[in-house]
Amino acid sequence: MLARLWSFLSGYVCLVFEGKNLEKVINMAVSRGLYLWDIKWLETGKVCVKVRLNGVKVLRHIARRTRSRFRVVGKSGLPFSAARLRKRKMLLVGLVLCAVLTYMMSSFIWFVEVRGNKKIPVATVIKTAEHAGLAMGTLKIGLDKDKIEKYIRNSIPETAWVGVRITGTKAVIEIAEKVIMPPVDNSPANVVAEKAGLVREILVLNGKAAVNEGDMVKQGDILITGMITPEPKPDQQPGKEEEEIEPPQPVRLVRARGMVRAKVWYEGYGESRLVDTGTRRTGRETEIISLRLLGKELVLKGPQSPPYADFVTGVDVKRLPVWRNIRIPVEIVTTNYYEVNRYRDIIGLSKAKSIAGSAALAVARGKVPGDAKIIGEITEEIPARGSNVIRIKVILEVMEDIGIAQPLNSDGP
Question: Which pTM value belongs to this model?
């Protein structure tokens, strides 16, 4: 590798030797310390070699002694490139200017990226960074990242940590957002049924149970009430005089809390054909590109008509952009023709039932909440005599918490 690098810096030439004693030429060159590489025999009595510039004079002496001759077929390396550039001064000036401009452009920040944000808008972070001195076109030299980080952190209270990292011409603002706990809602509320079900377990944390285990409830029924009615005291009997009876205590309104687990049923439906017919792609396709102008179409690429008997198409139309509210009626239409074959597959009864059952089960499972537990499964075939379709219904029995909070006004539920 170092030898090749030195050869490029010092310059080298590609020579073609012709003669009868070319092996002797190579041996004499190596014995004199010349570095030859990429030696290729072109034909009988002709060989191509590469050698550094300082070895050409020695090879000329060896060629005379061996009664052979050579010619230069290629020149490479820094000296030749520099000589060509000296002849083309404007190109050299352009290269220098390009290098200077590239260096200058790389000294600025041209892209600002925000990472780690989930709730804070990107536009808010970028605008705040611009006020702090970090924006597109900002010079990287002298950029105070600590000051920018502190400014963003103080300007956006939702941030817990801010970091600024410069990579090339891109500034990356990394953000860690604060985890803000929502305030606890203690307003009066009932726990009502989100869906119909058979109550199996009740756990009351606050309020009073309005249903019992084994009750069938429908959507909207109160499960745990937040209206607490005080119980009458034993001495407040109906037969006593009015002045001896204490005044009734007011009804307390609380936020009912608890868990009501119930059996809920989810249904899914699936079907499958016993004999399936249709079309499927063969893998062969053809693209036709045409120019559409004033209602006429000219094919630019591809056949003039679809090459397949049965096919489906995909069309992509590209139009010229609107210029000053002027729309030029020129379109480039790319139409892809995909060959298809017609098929007729006999599924069979058992396989059709399996396909329909799997589809019905997937539909039913898709309705089950993630925290619910499936405790039972019922599969039923829907009879359809003489039909080509097998229909399956799946019912999943699930145990889940069906209670949700419903605000309670002082006037009542």
Answer: 0.49
